[in-house]
Amino acid sequence: MHDYELLAALTYSYAGPEELRTTCDLINLLFVIDEISDKLDGEKARELGDNVLKVLGGEYIEGFVLSKMVEDFRLRFIKKAAPKCQERFLASWATYLSAVSQEADLRVKGDILGIEPYIDIRRENSAARVCFGLFEYVHGIDLPDEVYNHPIFQAIYWGGVDLVGILNDLYSYSVERSRGLESNNFLTVVMKEKGLTVQQAADFTGKVIMDRVIEFQENEELLPSFGEELDEAAHKYIFSVSQWYIGSLIWSFETTRYFGAKNQDVKKNLVVDVQEFNHEEEMA
């Protein structure tokens, strides 16, 4: 309905057939978790997360609605993923699911975070880090810690994570507002902290995005050499980060998930009437 496989094709455009199937499985799984968790409180979201982690670790849970889906993905992933890739991937899942439960707690309480605390939790609950966790799997590489943990490489990594989350907040604001879920959105956070209108918050968000893009490009130029073989692997990973945030941007205007039947009009005119936008009507 929302072309999640297209998102995989755009964000992992370099993947082979088997690897693309795995990325499709992951993205479909993440959207299912997102839809389910939006209706849960913090305790139920933590229970959901605990079960997902158990299945990812190899423990099949009879009666758990997502067991089969998670297990199918896990078996595809571990066939090829290198040990360090698997370790990082599972760690990203743990922080993602923890952030999802925190988000549920905040939603139930009606709390809206400040900009910096929000960015911290958005880096995790956007699932960008989980999606980035497949880069090494798809490319068949295994980055050593000396590359992955280098400060410049990490700055590039986190810049990409922020771009995915903040871009998504900009495009999803209208539909989240129509569903009463806008408290977990950068525009809402900015409006509250800075006393801005929706348009002013969107303009502010656009500047933040462009600043992140410039920083990303500058940091890419600053990355030192680790030797020919490792440089090739590092640049494949960095290329994949840029493909992800650019691919997700393109997909946001191709899918009906955020703008309904008006998605092509929004793409052409770059205007969203937030006050009149009714997602349920657009999707009908």
From TrEMBL:
SUPFAM superfamilies: Terpenoid synthases
Record keywords: Lyase, Magnesium, Metal-binding
Pfam families, per the entry: Terpene_syn_C_2
InterPro entries assigned to the protein according to its UniProt record, in alphabetical order: Isoprenoid_synthase_dom_sf, Terpene_cyclase-like_2
EC number(s) stated in the UniProt entry for this protein: 4.2.3.-
Any one Gene Ontology molecular-function term assigned to this protein's record: metal ion binding
Cofactor section: Mg(2+)
Enzyme class: lyase
An example Gene Ontology biological process: isoprenoid biosynthetic process
Family under the similarity heading: Belongs to the terpene synthase family.
Protein name: Terpene synthase
Source organism per UniProt: Schizopora paradoxa
